[in-house]
Design a protein that fits this description.
- This protein is mainly alpha-helical and 159 residues long.
- The chain folds into 2 domains: 92 residues, Serine Threonine Protein Phosphatase 5, Tetratricopeptide repeat; 51 residues, no CATH class.
- It is 77% helix and 0% strand.
- It contains 9 helices and no strands.
- Helix 1 runs antiparallel to helix 2 and helix 5 packs antiparallel against helix 6.
- The longest helix has 16 residues.
Length: 159
């Protein structure tokens, strides 16, 4: 996280705790308070994630776009937009967002956009492309079990 004021950071951490407990409305209120003190890409992205968990994907996408305005190098909102577009059935729109997440400078769970691309390619019947993406995810996160499971499923489809 970029250096933000102590209060904004503390409130953001409290929001994440509420989010993890499933208290989405409380988390959203806290994300908003954090943003009022110091707008950050993280706060907007995580608030979007909370809205997505309530099925409000368009609102989630808008918040991710605000995050990108603040920090275009933060990869999470690109991946999140891609995953929300997949949930909305807008596969063609999702692809460039996921590819941008892969190339973002500041992004920790870099295997997620590869997994999302793999799922997208599966939905489109592009099994070899899906396998390539899931194998990329495994290279990045060798212990990520869902990637191994998906790889076996794809291999079974190819046989």
């Amino acid at each position: 996280m970029k250096d933000i004021g102590k209060n904004a950071r503390e409130i953001l951490e409290m929001a994440l705790q509420e989010h993890m407990k499933g208290n989405l409305q409380k988390a959203i209120e806290l994300y908003q308070k954090s943003i009022e003190l110091q707008p950050t890409a993280e706060a907007y992205t995580y608030m979007g994630w909370a809205y997505s968990m309530m099925g409000e994907f368009e609102q989630a996408i808008e918040l991710c776009l605000k995050a990108i305005e603040i920090d275009p190098e933060f990869g999470n909102p690109y991946n999140d937009i891609g995953s929300y577009l997949i949930a909305l059935g807008r596969l063609e729109e999702a692809t460039p967002w996921l590819k941008r997440a892969i190339s973002a400078r500041r992004y920790e769970p870099r295997h997620y956009p590869h997994m999302n691309l793999a799922r997208l390619y599966l939905m489109k019947g592009q099994f070899k492309d899906a396998l390539k993406e899931v194998e990329n995810a495994i290279k990045i996160a060798p212990d990520y079990k869902p990637a191994h499971t998906l790889r076996h499923q794809i291999l079974a489809m190819l046989n």
